Amino acid sequence: MTVGHWSIAFAPLLPWSLIAGAAVLAALLIALCLWRRARGTSWRVLAFLVLLGALANPSAVKEERRMIDDVAVLAIDESSSEQVAPRPDQIAAAAPEIERRMRAIPGLEVRVVRVKPARSEADNGTELIGAVKNAVADLPPSRLAGVVLLSDGEVHDLPADTKALGIAAPLHLLLTGRENEGDRRLTVPKLPSYGLVGQKVEFTIRVDDLPQGPPSGRVRVDISRDGETLDPVFVPTGQDTNIAVELEHAGETLFELKAEAGPQELTLANNSAFITVNGVRDRLRVLLVSGEPHPGERTWRNLLKSDPGVDLVHFTILRPPEKQDGTPINELSLIAFPIRELFEVKLDEFDLVIFDRYQRRGVLPRSYLENIAHFVENGGALLDAAGSSYAGAYSLYDSPLGRIFPAAPTGEVLEQGFKPMISDIGRRHPVTAGLPGGDSNPPTWGRWFRQVAATTQQGAAVMTGIQGDPLLVLSRVGKGRVAQLLSDEIWLWSRGFEGGGPQAELLRRVAHWLMKEPELEEEDLKATIVDGHLTVTRRSLQEQPPSVSVTLPSGAQIDLPIEDKKDGRAVGQMNVEENGLYRISDGTRQAFAAMGALNSKEMSDLRALPDLLKPFTEATGGGIFRLDEQGDNVPQVRSVEPDRTAAGSGWLGLRRNGDYIVTGGTELPLLPVWLLLLLGLGTALAAWRREGR
Question: Which residue spans traverse the membrane (predicted)?
Answer without folding.
Answer: 13-35, 42-61, 670-688
